[in-house]
Automatic annotation (TrEMBL), chain A:
PANTHER family: CYTOKINE RECEPTOR, PROLACTIN RECEPTOR
Species this protein is from: Oreochromis niloticus
Signal peptide as annotated in the record: 1-22
Domain Fibronectin type-III: 130-228
Family the UniProt entry places it in: Belongs to the type I cytokine receptor family. Type 1 subfamily.
Biased composition (Basic and acidic residues): 349-371
InterPro entries: FN3_dom, FN3_sf, Growth/epo_recpt_lig-bind, Ig-like_fold, Type-I_Cytokine_Rcpt
Compartment(s): Membrane
The name this protein goes by in its record: Prolactin receptor
TrEMBL record, chain B:
Alphabetized Gene3D superfamilies for the sequence: 1.20.1250.10
Main location: secreted
PANTHER family attached to this UniProt entry: PROLACTIN LIKE (PTHR11417:SF33), SOMATOTROPIN,PROLACTIN (PTHR11417)
UniProt xrefs under SUPFAM superfamilies: 4-helical cytokines
One of the GO BP terms on file: response to nutrient levels
Official protein name in the record: Prolactin 2
Signal peptide: 1-27
Record organism: Oreochromis niloticus
Keywords, sorted A to Z: Disulfide bond, Hormone, Secreted, Signal
Subcellular location: Secreted
Length: 529, 228
């Protein structure tokens, strides 16, 4: 009976002991302090608050939110705990420009724990949600651009003017790390030009109400810009390729006809060449060949044989007895040629060369001869006779330099007494090509007789020249043959006279002005220029 | 050298003539009866201007308030915070969108004007007191002066809007009593002198936000064009 009473008395403390033991095992205590209290208004008309509960306490805890507004002293509890650990204030419970003080209390069986109070004005906690429905459109064409469009968050009322939204977007290349920001005030679209082709772009958008905090960025939207070839390129490629074809054709033609083209552009310059001379032969260097080539193959101009010519050419410089009805200043030069034997003729070529070199040669005879030979071919422009020779001749008073106006040969009646002096027989020609004349009286008559006879035979004295430029010859009665010859001569002359071209024609070899009364050459007139 | 000098002088003179035109926010005066030479603005345009002006004013007040808080009161969320007893508390202002929309145009306009009138003197006084704080001057002396000027300009702008509205018949003539000079003298209750600077800044920041929002609501109710 005593034990039963003891147990009764001990029941309560035992229970308490058990409870204490149990409590110690589970560390039960007052609830932990709620933490990180925050509130946010996404639309400037409502707001909500949230918190994180404190650590355990072990016992089931209940969290309550209490708030107080400025001007009212009553503390009210959260009107709507619609999610765990958050409180939503609807429009009826929301006032702007009013300061709220919010506190969260966690309570369990053992006690209560309150969080720190939070004081705010609605305009300070405005933070909208991110924009919605971001769409990207790539536009192809001349100016490829990217158009970005989005919608404002659905809970925001923009019609009343209560909320003014501003937007911000950022874009970057997929591989890049740097974002590029653009601001669009109230527009819900944006266009970006100068985009690259064939790359992937990432775009994000966010918004803000008035001057409040920015919303979160939207989820990244990707867009791939196609690497399209520009339509213009194909056109230009076509044009370019078409223009290449005629170029190629021209090139082919040029290459095929390169020789002709080369001839046209760079006409061949004739190399130095001597007719009859083989360049290759000369290159071989054999002197015999060279000489043969140079000398034998050359064709020198034909030189009239000297031996047939007995004419003397006198320098007509006499002003008084001038056969030439010309100006007094004009004087004709007729070189004096001395007839030589054929010995000298072999030296012709060399002398011709020498004459070609010097206008005044040391050898009188050679110069005269060459000059006369020159005269036979053509009339040289100048003739210069040295003074010595000029003085030797009678009737010569001056040195004459005169270009031939009319070329021809005129025979001038020889002074009889000079006949002997005019002829000299060449004795020999020494090595220096000097003709040594023998001072002897050449039986001139013999030679000359024959010649003279020939002369007499061949020559007739001109009687007169009438106005028609007809030459009338005088019959030579001295010589027997002369008459015959003269006759023949006259015939010749008459024949000549018949031909129409005689009159006034200088081809006769007779310069009409020259012929006054003199001898007319029976020889066929030399080639006269 | 003389020609250069003369050209410079002539350019300077021309500049003085043409550049000396004062530029102000309401450079184009409202014309009654469309007088010749006046630039007539539409009501929507006027509203936009005053709204922009109020937005700028609120921005400056916001900056000033946060600077002040940073400088003088580093610790936030103090339990023993100063009570918010703004001198404009007695003006009944709608505290939400619906309340503002439900209020009559004339009432709303009156509220705006009352607020603007009530802040002219305090802000001027605040600017004067700020000149003694040399540290603060370096930061914000321009802003306080600008703020007091802006309040003054905004009030004039809103008055012009009201006049236009009354001319157009949108608004009744009951608002005109507020704009008389007597009203300014009557609002000379010196409650604001008891306020401390920080409280003053806080109160003005709130009231400038109110003005901005009320103007926006009013605009979208009266001229609901783009921007609403």
């Amino acid at each position: 009976m005593v034990c039963a009473r003891m147990v009764k008395h001990l029941r309560l403390p035992l229970l308490l002991l058990l409870l204490a033991l149990a409590a110690e095992c589970n560390s039960m205590s007052k609830p932990g302090k709620p933490d990180k209290l925050g509130c946010r208004s996404p639309d400037k008309e409502t707001f909500f608050c949230w918190w994180t509960p404190g650590s355990g306490g072990g016992l089931p805890t209940v969290h309550r939110l209490y708030y107080k507004t400025e001007g009212r002293e009553t503390v009210r509890q959260c009107p709507d705990y619609h999610t765990a650990h958050s409180c939503f204030f609807s429009k009826t419970y929301t006032s702007i420009w009013v300061e709220y003080t919010v506190i969260v209390e966690a309570s369990n069986a053992l006690g209560n724990t309150s969080s720190d109070p939070l004081t705010f004005d609605l305009m300070d906690i405005v933070k909208p949600y991110a924009p919605e429905n971001v769409t990207l459109v790539v536009s192809i064409g001349d100016n490829p651009h990217l158009t970005i469009q989005w919608h404002t968050p659905s809970n925001i009322d923009t019609k009343s003017g209560w909320v003014t939204l501003k937007n911000q977007l950022r874009i970057k290349l997929e591989k890049s790390k740097i974002w590029k920001n653009y601001t669009s005030d109230t527009q819900t679209h944006f266009t970006i030009y100068n985009i690259e082709l064939g790359v992937v772009y990432m775009v994000e958008v966010r918004c803000a109400i008035d001057n409040s905090a920015w919303s979160e960025w939207t989820n990244t939207t990707f867009v791939k810009v196609p690497n399209f070839p520009r339509t213009d390129n194909s056109f230009w490629i076509l044009v370019f390729s078409l223009s290449l074809i005629p170029l190629l054709v021209a090139m082919i033609i040029l290459i095929l006809k390169r020789k002709t083209v080369k001839k046209y552009i760079l006409p061949p310059v004739p190399g130095p060449k001597i007719r009859g001379v083989d360049v290759q032969l000369l290159k071989s260097g054999r002197s015999e060949d060279v000489i043969n080539a140079m000398l034998l193959n050359q064709r020198f101009p034909v030189v009239m044989p000297w031996k047939d010519q007995n004419e003397d050419y006198l320098i007509v410089s006499d002003k008084e007895t001038s056969y030439l009805p010309l100006e007094k200043n004009k004087i004709f030069i007729l070189p004096v040629a001395i007839t030589l034997d054929s010995e000298v003729q072999s030296k012709e070529t060399s002398e011709v060369d020498r004459f070609l070199k010097d206008s005044e040669s040391s050898s009188e005879e050679s110069s005269e001869k060459t000059k006369s030979s020159q005269l036979l071919t053509k009339c040289p422009s100048t003739n210069v006779l040295n003074d010595e020779k000029a003085n030797q001749l009678k009737g010569v008073t001056e040195k004459i330099i005169q270009p031939f106006g009319i070329s021809g040969y005129v025979d001038i009646p020889r002074h009889e007494h000079t006949q002997e002096a005019d002829y000299s027989r060449v004795n020999e020609v020494n090595s220096d090509n000097i003709l040594i004349t023998k001072k002897e009286n050449v039986p001139h008559t013999l030679d000359t007789q024959g010649q003279e006879g020939g002369v007499l035979d061949d020559y007739s004295r001109v009687k007169e020249v009438n106005s028609d430029n007809t030459v009338f010859l005088e019959k030579h009665s001295d010589s027997v043959n002369a008459s015959i010859r003269a006759k023949g001569y006259i015939d010749w002359v008459n024949q000549k006279a018949k031909s129409p071209h005689v009159t006034g024609h200088s081809e006769m070899g007779v310069c009409p002005q020259l012929v006054g009364c003199g001898y007319v050459d029976t020889f066929p007139p030399p080639a006269v220029i | 050298k003389s020609t250069q000098f003369f050209s410079v002088v002539s350019v300077a003179l021309l500049c003085l003539v043409f550049c000396s035109q004062p530029t102000s926010l309401d450079a184009a005066p409202l014309c009654t009866n469309a007088e010749a030479g006046c630039h007539v603005l539409s009501l929507a345009n006027l509203f936009d201007r005053v709204i922009q002006h109020s937005a700028r004013m609120h921005g400056i007040s916001n900056d000033l308030h946060s600077e002040f808080e940073l400088y003088f009161l580093p610790s936030k969320n103090q339990i023993g915070r100063v009570s918010r007893n703004c001198h404009t508390s007695n003006i009944l202002t709608p505290n939400g969108k619906e309340n503002a929309q439900r209020m009559a145009r004339e009432e709303l306009t009156e509220v705006i004007l009352k607020l603007l009138v009530a802040w002219r003197d305090p802000l001027w006084h605040f600017h004067q007191s700020m000149t003694h704080f040399h540290d603060f001057i370096d930061f914000s002396s321009n802003k306080s002066l600008k703020m007091s000027d802006m309040v003054h300009e905004l009030r004039k702008g809103v008055q012009k809007v009201v006049e236009k509205m009354q001319m157009l018949g949108i608004l009744s003539n009951s608002v005109s009593s507020l704009m008389s000079p007597e009203a300014f003298l009557a609002s000379g209750s010196a409650e604001w002198r008891l306020m401390k600077d920080y409280e003053l800044l806080y109160c003005f920041r709130r009231d400038s936000n109110k003005v901005q929002n009320y103007l926006k609501i009013l605009k979208c109710r009266i001229v609901p064009e783009d921007g609403c």
